[in-house]
Design goal:
The complex is a heterodimer of chains A (305) and B (184).
Chain A (H helix, E strand, L loop, with lengths): L2 H18 L4 H7 L4 H18 L5 H20 L6 H10 L5 H18 L2 H5 L9 H14 L3 H25 L2 H22 L37 H33 L2 H24 L10
Helix pairs in contact in A: 1-3, 4-9, 6-8, 8-9, 9-10, 9-11, 10-12, 11-12
Chain B lengths: L2 H31 L2 H17 L11 H19 L7 H7 L6 H18 L4 H12 L4 H8 L3 H32 L1
The chains are: A mainly alpha (305), B mainly alpha (184).
Chain lengths: 305, 184
């Protein structure tokens, strides 16, 4: 075997050992001492590349994608793509829509599938408020919300969309588009309100707003999540809800911190008048996130402190 | 086995594969397009697209995993074609996935990511493809060869060439940074 081909095989084997099997670079180099000089820099770079660009989707995102797939599978089982067309027609013609909710869900799913299959949703996912595909992005968001059955999933979607609004605000800030920032700020507040409604029904905020948000500087620590005490061995719906609340709390906490970073970066490029608007928007959003995080610590009972 | 049984088997296999492959596909797509939000959407679309074509999938020939990555690859190509004009700048793309540990650490990681994403742009399309599939999707060189429809040997060559190019580009960037610091 030519020397080069041999080295390529060694490099390939080491990449597998280090990146897939968790072996150390040193252990791999020890196995091929004759190639150490050539192998080491490339192997270390492979590790660096992987570590620098590695990205794991949030569990909530995977949950949405999973639900989307399972729904499509179910739909396919009940309405196979190919079959007796006469029977399909009869089934369609005489089927009864059992409830209004199902009708909405079915039409929303159809809209989502239509949009997704046309590629419009994927194409619109990175769109910004001043771009033509942005309404598609927002329609897809509403469709997904309508398709989310349990309140936990809805709350996580609202949290994801709130984070998107933050990202869009930062993008609009760098363009100095005050009108869009204002609209997005209102949408962000709406999403955060919806999180409260879906995840914390019947609660009212307990944290007073600062009298002067304009004085706001970048914030201090975020309260950690302290789970409520559960009886030993307790299982069931409440335990599941507890885990969901913990996940949502962590999600909101990281979104709030990410918001600081996004706005810091945006602040560098934003024109001067927009900077002030952005600072105020951040102050207000920070308080609302904080309120939500604090709400998660309160007991579920209706008594007020 | 009837056609509907085959389709059911395929859909079940797809649902099982979702658990192991979704994250890998997101990673692969993210490195190819540099937009985390779009990568998550596209990865979800991969499974819907696969479901649509499950009847046409033949159990002999390429494994289902390689077939999924081929779909992902096609969606990436379409996406890049459509978004050629408004691709995210590496810094924006990097900021999208900043971790929430601390703002300072985030900023540093963002810069490193941006630099690496920028360096990746110096690779040829085939090299980038191989690096994304091998390093981020975690495919073996044989599985990668099935996805990119090349020989095993060609994949190894592309992998080695990609690493050498990245090394030169990053070294040059670091050299410039050191020079700039020395000069300033």
């Amino acid at each position: 075997m030519a020397e080069n081909a041999m080295f390529l095989q060694v490099l390939d084997a080491c990449v597998d050992r280090v990146l897939k099997e968790g072996d150390s670079v040193e252990a791999c180099l020890a196995s091929y001492p004759e190639h150490t000089e050539q192998l080491e820099p490339l192997l270390r770079l492979a590790v660096q590349t992987r570590q620098t660009l590695d990205y794991a989707p949030a569990p909530s995102t995977a949950a949405v994608a999973r639900a989307r797939l399972h729904r499509a599978i179910q739909q396919r089982e009940t309405h196979p793509p190919r079959g007796n067309s006469r029977r399909s027609f009869q089934r369609f013609a005489f089927a009864r829509v059992h409830s209004y909710r199902w009708a909405i869900v079915a039409s929303t799913a159809a809209l989502l599938v239509l949009l997704a299959s046309s590629g419009a949703v994927a194409a619109s996912s990175g769109s910004q408020p001043d771009q033509p595909l942005y309404p598609v992005k927002r329609t897809a968001e509403r469709a997904r919300l309508a398709l989310a059955f349990d309140q936990g999933a809805k709350a996580r979607l609202h949290a994801t969309y709130a984070e998107r609004r933050v990202k869009e605000m930062a993008a609009m800030a760098t363009k100095g588009d005050s009108r869009q920032i204002e609209a997005l700020q209102s949408d962000l507040q709406g999403s955060l309100r919806q999180i409260r409604r879906t995840a914390l029904p019947g609660r009212v905020p307990v944290v007073a707003r600062p009298a002067d948000a304009g004085r706001y500087t970048f914030p201090g620590p975020v309260p950690p999540y302290v789970p409520r005490m559960m009886p030993r061995g307790y299982q069931g719906q409440e335990a599941r809800q507890g885990a969901e609340a913990r996940e949502l709390h962590q999600m909101l906490q990281s979104h709030m911190q990410l918001m600081e970073l996004r706005f810091r970066l945006a602040m560098r490029d934003a024109p001067e008048p927009t900077k002030e608007q952005l600072r105020q928007a951040l102050a207000s959003a920070h308080v609302e996130y904080q309120e939500l995080l604090v709400e998660f610590q309160r007991p579920a009972s209706p008594e007020r402190r | 086995m009837s056609g509907s049984d085959e389709a059911k088997k395929g859909a079940d296999a797809l649902a099982d594969l979702f658990e192991t492959e979704y994250g890998r596909i997101v990673r692969y797509v993210y490195v190819r397009i540099g937009d985390a939000g779009a990568a998550e959407e596209l990865a979800s679309d991969v499974f819907l697209r696969a479901l649509e074509g499950i009847d046409a999938f033949e159990w002999r020939g390429v494994p289902m995993q390689a077939w999924l990555f081929r779909i992902a690859r096609n969606l990436v190509v379409d996406y890049l074609r459509k978004h050629a004009r408004r691709k995210l700048a590496p810094l924006d793309a990097a900021a999208e996935v900043a971790s929430p540990d601390s703002p300072e650490e985030d900023a540093l990681q963002t810069m490193e990511r941006a630099e690496m994403l920028e360096a990746m742009e110096y690779l040829t399309a085939a090299q980038r493809e191989v690096v994304s599939l091998r390093f981020f999707a975690g495919l073996s060189s044989q599985e990668t060869a099935q996805v990119v429809k090349r020989s095993n040997g060609a994949v190894r060559e592309l992998q080695s060439a990609a690493l050498k190019t990245l090394r030169h580009v990053l070294a040059a960037k670091q050299g410039r940074t050191v020079q700039a610091k020395g000069g300033g």
